[in-house]
Amino acid sequence: MKEKEQFMRRAIELSIQNIKEGGGPFGAVIVKDGTIISEGVNRVTANHDPTAHAEVNAIREACRKLDTFSLEGCEIYSSCEPCPMCLSAIYWAHLDKVYYAGAKEDAKAAGFDDAHIYEQLSLPASKRDCPSEELLGEEALKAFNVWKASNEKVNY
Amino acid sequence: MKEKEQFMRRAIELSIQNIKEGGGPFGAVIVKDGTIISEGVNRVTANHDPTAHAEVNAIREACRKLDTFSLEGCEIYSSCEPCPMCLSAIYWAHLDKVYYAGAKEDAKAAGFDDAHIYEQLSLPASKRDCPSEELLGEEALKAFNVWKASNEKVNY
Asked: Is the pTM of this model over 0.90?
């Protein structure tokens, strides 16, 4: 447990340091075999990238370092409960486990309303705030047919 | 409608071209005031980045071009219904509307099971496949307190 707390303290330390460097109050580290292999902080406004959350940045960096698109065998320590974008990225990256410190209620009180997006995702598309519309569905099937017939496809 | 179909045909064209270039069968374009300002394709396995979906790449590129972290006033055309990571990114980026061609059922039949992640997100954390554990919650509050007291914070 002491080792886990050290990893989390590093994620929290990153989150505080990042505020001083013009970023949001979030940090994350990814650990494999007891060693930190990547660190990430929230650079949304600083880098003009709405996807630059701490967890996403840590995942990108870990994949660069390990030269892979799968982080099986790794765990992520985040200074706050992941938002739905980050949690989905954690699934796509096949991370083994999430440790988090701050609760999403704390994030909300600080102005980050992840809960709203969680609610939106659980609604049918027709009931979401952001409207969506199907267009040329039949034409899109061609891409999947080319994909299924391709010998070079890599599944993930 | 004809203009909208042109944008979607471009997204579909990108998705097919991308398969030949070693990527996944997904493409997206972002449009502002009737002009395409960015394009994205799925480079997950090609670039070793699990977050490099077509929509995420198009969002990052649009923000770089417009030098902003908010895409209010823009619409995204995706060759397939966005996965929960991409839909969350669309919310964080404040896009006005989503047009999609392929349905998530088509994506599933081609081996991309976004529906599983949608289901996981709607479950309480304790019931998800990817386990999560709270650790040092009290210590994390410090970051939010520093944030709330900061004069330099930029909300998004």
From this structure: yes
